[in-house]
Every structure is written in structure tokens, then in C-alpha cells.
Task: structure prediction
Amino acid sequence: MKTEEAAQRARTPAHIRAVGLSKSYVQRAPFSHKKFAIDALLDVQLEVSPATLTALVGESGSGKSTLARCLAMLEKPDCGEIWFEGKEISRSGSWELAWLRPKIQMIHQDSAGALNPRFTAAQVIAEPLEIQRRESGPKLRSRVCELMEEVGLPANWADRRPLELSGGQRQRLAIARAIALKPAFLILDESLSGLDLSTQAQILNLLLDLQKAHSLTYLLISHDLSLVEQVADFVAVMHQGRMVEHGAGQDIFGSPRHAHTRELLGSVRLVESAFRAAQAGGQQ
Amino acid sequence: MRTVSGYSESATTRAQSPGAPGLLCARELTVCYASRGEPSSPALLGIDFDIAPGEIVGVLGESGSGKSTLALSILGLLPESADIAGSLVFEGKDLLRFDESAWRGIRGARIAMVFQEPGLSLSPVMRVGSQIAEVLRAHRQEGSNHRKLQVEAVLAEVGLTQVDRIYKAYSHQLSGGELQRVALSQALACRPDLIVADEPTRSLDGTRQKEMLDLLRETNRKFGCALIFITHNPGLLAGFADRVIVMYAGRIVEEGPVSRVFRRPLHPYTKGLLQLMPTSLQYAGRTRGQHLPVLPGTLTDDDHLSPGCSFASRCSARTQVCQTEFPAEVAPEKGRRVSCFNYEN
Result:
């Protein structure tokens, strides 16, 4: 994405915005009664513009998943505000959040663990529609088929169970379930990291198509910078619970400012240049 | 050589695998998993390869290509239900004839493995130090004091600085990078001749990944142990592995030195895989929302059973003969081999 375009997008109102989020978990040391707090998030600011793909990167334990769980309202932050479509949502009770739940969806890393193994593919996709929209009968069945085709699963696979599918196909099924309620904001928590390069690229292309069709907003959590670099409009870098850098993808990858970003990027560049050298035949 | 009925006819003479007579030598290695009593499609089909002492060999392929089955068969860890044929000769002895007690003398001592998820392969209820000591206790008769010193030495060898803390820690108290080093030190404890690493960097971020690769390379140089490195990412093999074996649907489709295979891949599958490798050159001119390059289609069970080339259904260079006949292995230049009718196009 061009920098001017990014700047223009940055001026439009944010789809979801986190202001000063903090969250800590209290843990007990093993075999003792001593308790200590782990600061998972420390004064985190994040803004995600509509219909863009923002990548959230950082090493494991940097607080990426905690931030995602807070934004999806699966976890309440200790302090700070979360604004979604112009409303502050972090203080709302569960009933007040009913309008919000269909709009924010999450796709997990481990698709085998996230899908009920006893359900068929059709049941997996139908469940949110039955609960939220009370749909049933032929209308529900045709919607399920429509969704399966949209994510590139043959409609005659409706009776297969998740464990009969490959990793990429399971992730497609998880995507179909997530978009069933026509959400506006999708959180992909390391959804691509268990997959092969070719499957990763296929799923990313599917996500780009869905974004075009439904103007979806994505937050893609990943530790793989070479993957992020290919698709991200914006990049947010986390380190030890803090947001250390946030900006347009081109800027972050072109001229990283924070030392941690440079370190993360440096190793990616090393692997990449070794690969290019091998391709060019520079190394014999 | 053992054979399994139904696959024995494939045991024709083929182009010999290049490389000196080595440490590990596989001929016509075939593995079938039986499901519900019926044999299913083979996970490995007539694999030939050699590993020379002290070399690093990358095994490249996507999930379902048989990479992990290959690793497990080298370690003798395949389930009872698996049907193995062919031969797998390690230092002059056929491993496939080994019974469990003979395996116990080799596994961990001469051939060791580093698994994909170190967090899962280490026991959560044992201290890390005792787990490494257990390997030494199983293979060497030494006093426990001496053993502890050895464990501490091997932990230091993999670049861990706080040896005392790590020795006493449980696996959940360590970070991902530390766990991966502990797993490697466990594999190294008995100074094996061969280490099989099954995607050891998959769950690590870029920085840790690079550190792990450097560490593996360094151990390989220092102790001269051969390394089989299994991955789906060709980028990791550049500048790291000496040779690459590309697998597809249980067969070796291409093999050769990394530098030559990456510069001029011959098999259409290898070409496709190398194109997937994200490089900053690709997206410099990319417009927003534009598709990424992909290998079309997926590997299915039908591909395994196809009489022709198993890659034919996804191949862009496919011709009539590809659907009906499996391409024999050819050696286009010294040290390389490829299974494709149209590799020259």
C-alpha cells in the first residue's frame, strides 16, 4: 500500500480502537503460595481502519493474543478503553454485548481444536446461524452450501467431519463459520502458522477475496514477518506487553524505527538474502 | 530386503542415489499404514537415499508428502500397524530387521531426534536436567555425579548460559527458544552420528529460527554428526543444508546440492515451491489486494494411487504420458536426480 493512501486511510475514523489498555494475570509460583503478577499488556494503543489488514507481530509472550482476546471481548482489560464503531465496549455487560458478538469473530491457530470433532462440516457452519439468527430448514441449508462454496470447499463435503479434512481445508471451514454471521471485524490468531507455504498462500488469497467481497477488517496475529510483509496494510509490533511500533506496512518494513522491530526484521532478511544468493548461484 | 506383497514389483533397478557409501542407506523403503485392517495408500513408496557422515540433508515437502513418516521410520518409531518394506542400512546393519531391544541400543545413542514441538516432547512432570540424564543413564554406565556434570556440559554446548536454572526447571518454566535448545541437548547427549530434526523451527519466530539454524550448523561442524532437517520452507535450507531431497506424495521427486537445485530447479513441483518463497522483490510492485503466487490444488489420496506421476493433477507442464506412467528417475547431471518426463522444459 502506498504511503499517501495509508495516510488518507489513517484520517478516516477507526473501526476498532484501543486506548491505554492494560491487563495483568496473577499467577502462583509452582509448589508455593507466593503470587506474582504478569503484565500481559501495558498501556497499549491500537487503531484499526475499516477494510484494512493490520498485522500484529511480536515474539511469543509479547501479549499479542491477550490484546486479541481483549478486542474480541473474551477477556476484560484491567484498565483502558476499547471503541468499536463509535461505541465504548470494554465496560459493557454480557447482555449489552449481544449486538456486538456477531460483528467480531475470531479464527484460532489450532483448527482441529477449535472445531467440534463430532459435528459435520455443515453443522459447524450452521451452529452460529441457528443460535444468532434462529434460521432453520431449507433456508439454513442453502446458506451453509453458499458459505462452503465461498471458502472453496465442495458443497458435497457437508457430511465430512473436521478430522477427515486436511489442515488447510479445516482452516477454510473455520473461516466459513466465522463469516457466517457477516461480521465486520475478523481476528486471525496465528491462523496460518500451522500450514505449509502453499496452503498459507491459498488461504491468504481467500482472505483477500473475502475482504473485497464483504469489506472485512482483519487483525492478523503472526510471528512470521515474511508472511506479514506480503499482505499487511498496517503493522503493529509488540514487545513485552507494549506496543513499540505501529504504522503503514511499507514504512515499518522499509525503515523500522524501534530496535526490536529491526531485530525481528534482520533475521528475516538474512534468511531471505541467503535464499536469493542460492537462487542466483552466488554460493557454490 | 523385506518386501510387501503388491509393492514388490516396483523393486526394479533405478538410478543409484548419488553420494559416497554412507552412514545411512535406504533402498526401496516403502511404508503403508493399515487403517481398520485394510492397507491404505503408501505413505512412502520406494524411497532410495544415502546420508554421508557429517552432512546436512534437507527434506523438503508439504504436509502429506511423507516427510514425518520418513523421520519416524529412521528412528524405528512407526506404529505397529505400519507395514514397512525395503531396507534401511545404518553402518552396515539393516535397521528394519531390528527388534525392540536392538532399537533401544541405537535410538538416542547413535540416531537421535529433535521433534517439532519441544513443549510436547518433554515430560511436564520431570525436571529438564533429569530428562537429559535419563538418556545418558539408558546408554552409559556411569555414576550419577558424573552424569550431572555431563548434562551441564551438554546444556552449555547448545548455548544456554544459566545452566543451573535450566537444569532444575520444568519444561513449562522455559521459553520456546530455551525448550528447543534443551531438546537439542537431549538429542546430543550421547554424541549420536545422526540427528533427525522434524521441523524444529516451525513454532519459533524469525529471530529464534535463525538462532536455531546457526546452532544446528555449529553442532554439525563441532561434533561431525549428520543431520536430516525436515521442513516445508525452502528458505531455511539456503546457506544451511548441503543437499536437498524434495518429496511429493511419498516419493522423492528431486535431489541434489542445495545451491544447484535452488538455482535451477528441474521438477515442476520444486519450481512451484521455490516461487512461493516470499521475497521483498515480489511485493515491491504489488498492488493492494493482489493475489499471492500459489501452487494450485492440493495433494489428495487419489494422487497417491494414480498410476502416473502423482504431481500430474497440479502440474502446469503436464503431458499425455504423465497421467498413465510414473516417470523413472534420471540423473541429468552428476549428483542430481529427478523424476519427471518434462524436466528439461
About this structure: Residues 206-223 of chain B form the longest helix (18 residues). The radius of gyration of chain B is 21 Å.
